[in-house]
Known about the structure:
mainly alpha
Amino acid sequence: MRSKKLISALLFAMTFTLIVPAFATNNPAVPTNETPKEILAKQIKTRLMEIKNMDMSDMTKAEKKELKKEVKDLRAQARSQGIYLSVGAIIIIILLLILIL
Length: 101
């Protein structure tokens, strides 16, 4: 009878030692109010600042060319996040507003 209680208590204790690490996380979820676009914009900005602060005097011509291409790509990627309206779209919107009002 006593060994039966001991075995059940040990099994109970072992289940807790197996369950608790499963719920532990290294990085707790930190709620942020930033959208993925804002996060990407910050990453692009920090990378551009890193490139700007680099010492380019000891780089080869090919490395400088590669950095220049990366800067162009990053700036194009940063510009493409906004909403752009063409001249034709703006004229159509103005005509629709005039007709409605």
